[in-house]
UniProtKB/TrEMBL annotation:
Any single Pfam family the record assigns to this protein: Peptidase_S9
InterPro entries for the chain: AB_hydrolase_fold, Pept_S9_AS, Pept_S9A_N, Peptidase_S9_cat, Peptidase_S9A, Prolyl_oligopep/macrocyclase
Chain intervals with Basic residues compositional bias: 710-725
Keyword annotations from UniProtKB, A to Z: Hydrolase, Protease, Serine protease
Domain Peptidase S9A N-terminal intervals: 8-418
Enzyme Commission no: 3.4.21.26
Domain Peptidase S9 prolyl oligopeptidase catalytic: 483-691
Region spans: Disordered: 688-725
Stated name of the protein: prolyl oligopeptidase
Domain of life: Bacteria
Amino acid sequence: MVARLSYPAARRGDVVENLFGLSVADPYRWLEDGHDGSVRDWTSAQDRLFHAYRARWPEARSWASLVDEVSSFGVSEPPTARGPVRFLAEQRREDEQRRLLVVDADGSRRVLVDPAKIDPSGHTGLYAWWPSREGERVAVQLEVAEQPGSDIIVLDARTGETVDGPLPRARNTSLAWLPGGEAFYYVSRVPAEQLAPGDTRLHRRVRWHRIGTPWEADTVVFGDEDAPDHYYGLTVSADGRSLAITAMAGPAAPNHVYVAELIDPRAPRFVRVVDGRTTRARVLPRFLANGDLLLVTDYQAPCGRICVTDRHDTYPAAWRTLVPEDPEAPLDECVVLDDPALARPVLLVARARHGISTVTPYDLADGRPLGRLPLPGAGVVSSLRTNLPHGRQAWFGYCDLTTPPVIYRYDAADGTLERETGAAISGHAPRIHSRGVRYRASDGTEIPLFLFTPEEEPPGPRPTLLYGYGSFGMPMRPWFFPLAAAWVSAGGTFAVACVRGGGEAGEHWHEAGRGPRKHRSISDFNDAAAWLVETGRTTPARLASYGVSGGGLLVTAAATQRPDLYAAVVAAGPLCDMVRYERFGLGHTWTEEFGTASHPEQLRWLLRYSPYHNITPGTPYPAFLLAGAVTDLQTGEAHVSKMCAALQHATSSDRPILMRREPGTAHAASPASKERALTADILAFAGKHTGLSPGGPASRRTAVTPNGRGPRRLRRVARGRRRSG
């Protein structure tokens, strides 16, 4: 029997709060202060423990090599077309971060922004870019890991010279150019010196900026103190005469829509055309060339529909449904192609039926379907884009579990669909069998589950890695996922549970697992684990779970409720202390999703499943790997520290409880080498505790093939992937 690890000592404090008559203990409250010397000493000791334990993983290098083989490089998302040029991001095999390229009308490429030249350490990344309508200028946002500031600079797209900026405090912004490229609207936060001490709320404002003027002169056109944590989205009409703003209290909350005529762009007068408190739905507006509004909404349509309305008559009763809801295929996104050269304007719509994407063009005038685009396999379509202000072509990305993103171009003039560019992997694509199944949850609801196995699946229980998310209405899809490809290449099974709280079956699926019903997400996940065991696909000794961010909450909560189901648990950037999550990172913007501890009833919801508060001393817990950035600006790093200390104190098992901290990274984006290193560590940890070896016989049976990218593989997968909390 392996001796239980000797963990760094963590004193248990005596903090017990009386919250609405409930005694809530918080023995590791002191770990929240990352600047305290005793906290730094304790986390440093945890770092040493992890590195010493990792040094004993005999197959760490083999896992790292396998991850390198299946990691992708190249162009992974569609271009942004403006005027005669296109802007696209590329990450070469040797790059830590993406570069921004410009493709001129003659097809020649040139590098506009290379973060490696700005910061050779690799910690500065290209976050977002917004070209002007004419393609002559581009607003660029770079972000530095662990730093809260995020500036916008404006570049001349022909020379790369900086023509404006920096505009500060624009993290998580939206930006919309006015025609002519001389001004734009953007979202930025109120300067810290204007806030009360200790106020960590977002306090975003929509501002108008003219090129060449200092940011201090930017006019605030929208936003006030009554909405301190609102998210804003901006859309300017093709003629530049109208501005629409969406305003929501959280990343997946119902939203208002405001519209203003831009008689004076510096002083638009807004009219609320959609009241989110009335609709309790999400409504995304687009301006049509004839002046009407196109509304993409889940109002009275949980799987989404597309409506048209006069912008002056926007009550829901006046909305005319253009593309109706398909209850079996949630709506993902759409784009309007209305170039004057087209015989008729086209609406291109992407849906997901049982997790598999379809793309259908519709007549924009009457909503008549015009056929369906032939996709290369049973995968996922994302990021529909077209030229602005009017386009005839659309670009989108396609991927599946073994196909890294490929970029396709659709031409509405002749109906052609062509592959344009895409990413590649360093080695060869593995042979993976994909299928979707359904299992029954404890309340009788059927839950979708994706299973990915070696093509020549060996009999008997296999080491299995179960993945999930279950928050903010974000759906799980068969995306290209190097971690999954590496796991299956080694002979394991990778399973994705589409638990309630996600968006796999539309907004009603999200509603069924949020707020007072969040516990369903967790029970759904445990039911998936139990189903995998009961059907003989794995055993508790061979089953590991893995989740990131909201998925980290899912897997830690599931394991504290059913520790007997798992051999190992990996949680990256998780939420664990649900009583105080609002005090860390962006947690105060997620109360629409989870609830708030400041309300007695909602506190009870949170305490029901909060992982940190449901740890029981003397329980033989699975092995835990709690991974996170040293500074996490989204979820906050205290979740990892407090959960680790509580588990180390409580567990009666000899299986390790480890904390893996990474400096110089962010919540969900890191330099490429650090992302690969984290992936390899996750695989080595999960493999060690489930018995999966990257060099074993099963791995050789599922070896990658030289022709892995050819048509045969596309036919095989034909029978069978956003960034939030």
